[in-house]
């Protein structure tokens, strides 16, 4: 299986992936994280040999373009943290580290590349402490320090040994018998290695296949029955916990949504009650009496002044004038003045003489009756119905509701508002004509 994986992801494919991840066309700091992690998975799963990966990165580090060198250094650091022990051993070798030091000592080296190399060498030396097989990185760090290179301040939170402790597929163990059923291998009973534990089994004890993401192996590979049972139970336990947390979150979300819907329905019902007459709506203020109107005088009880008499009470002309005025006030007032034609005599002018005053009028001229004006203005309750429907729809949309059929009260408001559309259109058209007439008058 390992040979097949190495053949699929061979040296040419690895070189192409590294070249793409460190391309000159990528902007500074624009790493392709997905491609970088894919390269790490191929190295950790041993589909790509660790030595070939180290040499591909070494080739890109020797590039003349500083941007390519920075991308290669970033990819190397990611592979160190995710590539496994075999790749760590290749990076800590003299072949890689001596080449890195030679780049650092170039006189025309870019400043950013130089500072990045110093920072990474310092971080790697701290992370590799306590690992004898990786001690050469620490020796290089001490040598550069003695030569006077100024390293950046140490960041122990980043340069931690736990950052490079990644799980890698185990080395294969060879045997002449199946390590589970102890059956001897033969021409018909062939041996197979488990990619999870590295032990050897026959076909009967290693017939299962599954992906091993903890080793960076995403394709289905052969595993023994024991490892398959163990990994399946672990995955089921994790999946149950995830489903439980998801169901709790869904229930909380559902209850909150139902509460919001109930509140919205209650608000719509209140709006309908207000439209139907529970609320009086807009009531225009009554105009105060002006000089063109009239108001009845206060009623004064005569019993209050029993002994008070004036000469006017005995005047019959004054009584007749007062009664005529009261009858005129009690009669309904027309919207337009009524012209009363009286016979014209040359000897008698148009005048009226009464006690205490005299008034004359010009001759009356007969005029045609004025046409009745149409009133297209909306009544207060009609305008309130339209505004209530508009506010209710905005409230439903603000709470995330898109299906208005779920709210039956909205349909009733819509019917009322739709019935007022013709009158509203006439009112707007009439207002526009009045505005034009006033503007060009």
Automatic annotation (TrEMBL):
The keyword Zinc-finger applies. Residues 31-152 form the VHS domain. It holds the Pfam family FYVE. The keyword Zinc-finger applies. It is a peripheral membrane protein. GO terms for molecular function: phosphatidylinositol binding; ubiquitin binding; zinc ion binding. It is found in: Endosome membrane. One of its GO terms (biological process) is endocytic recycling. Component of the ESCRT-0 complex which is the sorting receptor for ubiquitinated cargo proteins at the multivesicular body (MVB) and recruits ESCRT-I to the MVB outer membrane. This is Vacuolar protein sorting-associated protein 27. It comes from Galerina marginata (strain CBS 339.88).
């Amino acid at each position: 299986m390992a040979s097949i994986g190495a053949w699929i992801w061979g040296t040419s494919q690895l070189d192409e992936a590294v070249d793409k991840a460190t391309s000159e066309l990528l902007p500074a700091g624009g790493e392709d994280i997905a491609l970088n992690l894919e390269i790490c998975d191929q190295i950790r799963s041993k589909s790509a040999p660790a030595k070939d990966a180290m040499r591909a990165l070494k080739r890109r580090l020797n590039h003349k373009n500083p941007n390519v060198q920075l991308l290669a250094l970033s990819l190397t650091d990611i592979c160190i943290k995710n590539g496994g022990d075999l790749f760590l051993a290749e990076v800590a070798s003299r072949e890689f580290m001596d080449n890195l030091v030679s780049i650092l000592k170039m006189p025309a080296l870019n400043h950013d590349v130089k500072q990045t190399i110093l920072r990474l060498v310092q971080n790697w030396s701290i992370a590799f402490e306590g690992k004898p097989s990786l001690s050469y990185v620490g020796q290089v760090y001490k040598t550069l320090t003695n030569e006077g290179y100024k390293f950046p301040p140490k960041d122990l939170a980043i340069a931690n040994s736990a950052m490079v402790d990644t799980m890698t597929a185990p080395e294969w163990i060879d045997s002449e018998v199946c390590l589970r059923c102890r059956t001897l291998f033969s021409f018909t009973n062939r041996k197979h290695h488990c990619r999870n534990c590295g032990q050897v089994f026959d076909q009967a004890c290693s017939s299962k296949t599954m992906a091993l993401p903890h080793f960076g192996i995403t394709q289905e590979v052969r595993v023994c029955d024991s490892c398959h049972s163990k990994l399946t139970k672990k995955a089921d336990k994790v999946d149950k916990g995830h489903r439980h947390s998801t169901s709790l979150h869904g229930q909380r979300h559902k209850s909150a949504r139902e509460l919001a819907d109930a509140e919205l329905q209650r608000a719509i019902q209140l709006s309908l009650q207000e439209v139907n007459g529970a609320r009086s709506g807009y009531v225009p203020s009554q105009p105060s009496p002006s000089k063109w109107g009239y108001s009845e005088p206060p009623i004064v009880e005569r019993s209050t002044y029993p002994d008070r008499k004036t000469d006017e009470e005995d005047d019959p002309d004054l009584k007749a004038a007062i009664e005529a005025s009261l009858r005129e006030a009690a009669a309904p007032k027309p919207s337009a003045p009524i012209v009363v034609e009286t016979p014209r005599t040359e000897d008698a002018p148009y005048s009226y003489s009464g006690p205490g005053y005299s008034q004359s009028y010009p001759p009356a001229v007969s005029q045609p009756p004025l046409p009745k004006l149409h009133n297209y203005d909306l009544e207060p309750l009609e305008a309130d119905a339209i505004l209530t429907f508009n506010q209710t729809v905005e409230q439903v949309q603000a709470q995330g509701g898109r299906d208005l059929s779920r709210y039956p009260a909205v349909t009733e408001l819509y019917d009322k508002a739709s019935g007022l559309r013709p009158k509203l259109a006439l009112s707007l058209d009439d207002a526009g004509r009045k505005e034009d007439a006033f503007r060009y008058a």
